[in-house]
# Entry
Amino acid sequence: MDAELHQLTLTQLAAGLGRREFSAVDLTRALLERIERHDAALNAFVTVTGDEALAAAKRADDARAAGEAGVLNGLPIVHKDIFCTRGIRTTCGSRMLEDFVSPYDATVVERLARAGAVVLGKTNMDEFAMGSSNETSYFGPVRNPWDLERSPGGSSGGSAAAVAARLAPAATGTDTGGSIRQPAAMTGTVGLKPTYGRVSRYGMIAFASSLDQAGVIARSTEDAALLLGAMAGFDPRDSTCIEHPVPDYVAALAAPLEGLKVGIVRQHFDQGLDAGCATAVREALAVLEACGATLTEVDLPNLDLSVPTYYVVAPAECSSNLSRFDGVRFGHRAADPGDLTELYCRSRGEGFGAEVKRRIMTGTYVLSAGYYDAYYLKAQKVRQLIADDFRRAFADVDVIAGPTSPTPAFRLGDKTDDPITMYLNDIYTIGANLAGLPAISAPCGFVDGLPVGLHLVGPHFGEEAILRCAHHYERATEWHATCPDAYR
Amino acid sequence: MSLDKDQVQHIAMLARLRLADEEFAETVDKLSRIVDFVDQLSRVSTDDVVPMAHPLDASQRLRPDEVTESNDRDHVQENAPLVQDGLYLVPKVIE
# Structure
């Protein structure tokens, strides 16, 4: 069994640990060896925390022996390097934070640790989560385990690549415009972005505070449900975290799909969607129907406006959030500044990469005197129209289904010349962030050997419906269990 | 180009970002493309639409004004580039 530990899901590993077939230390060692062997080619990790992981695994084994095992006891995970970890550096993929060691843990980190999870390391990401290809990372791009010449998507590309390559069974991620779901689609993994406010953002380095949400990347819906249950819930330290009971997400998976109404968005199959992806998604919808769901068409007439709306709102919030990086209290500081203004300008100019600087400047522009009403206020009005489209659709259906991404994984370097081409990659995912809705991407096939994702969106706090829908789809298919040849 | 060099220089200053000469031209080009792209919002009719304040229409939660954190200055300042006697050092601002 040992040789195949890396192929097991969290749920299977939990069962094996419970039956004492292997220890948490054995499991942690096996995965650390895989990371050592494969990560030079993938670049999925910024920091591997081998010593800390082995110590945590030992504690988990001791806790189990003492009959005190938590729900995730001894289960290995990795954290996107946007979550602050006490005593372990947190870079956010940026030169600005290359040597930053947080004095505290993010709530997500704290909750998963308390449940007994063992953290193997911190994963690579687009700088400050601003990117859809992992190419904006200061630590270099992550490579897609399905084709090393291709991007794993972004910004949670390191998390997605690590899970797809079986270096870790599951990972945390964050999603501001698709940063969990798009890399999940491009690596054949399950990616869940919960409702805005479902999971605490405390200690999660902020990009766009009205859109950011923490979630998970895993190899099964059941694992995503298990991790979400451990992460979710009210946190007084995040003023936007919502007090709403946390259901048993795993228990909710089993209920049959009969009677579930699935809406198919007419606009999703317009121009821009790769023909192979369209076929895979249509076949997936037929499977959902065979599982008992009822399919019906819905309209999201303002879908096309979601990307331009996002590229006003998100940069505006980013320019405000990233003003904290001043070269004075923490982060990169330029050498020998002549005066205070030069200290700010050079520290930020050197510490941030090109895409982050563009987004800060876009945000600064749309918020500047004379432009606020024309851009920021206008975008918040259009955002309301987009949210209204979803409200109307959810009056008729329980879940909205479509493709996660317009194409499978693209080649590294293919979209770096034109920011708009890169931005349009998130056309199907951004709406859920603008409206604060939960959404999941589930593997639904391949085009030329590259994975395709099925995107399911639910109403606010409708995680159970989308998880259940994805779970039944998963039970009827084998896509989620398909492993890239080089990582068997 | 919807933005000219002077505008981009002004925005960079507002954002406290120094751009290297070689990135400046590229920034003018790419920022202009982004602004052109988001300009399509101006064609949307939004009369009588209330701008979104919160995706779940939630209002800001308040908490009692109580001391919950202890002073952890030395630990926090371990991340500071330059400190002396518990103070952050910056270039002289008053002659």
Remarks:
- Chain A touches chain B through 72 residues (CB under 8 Å).
- The longest strand of chain A covers residues 439-447.
- Chain A has a mean pLDDT of 97.
- The CA atoms of residues 291 and 472 of chain A lie 7 Å apart.
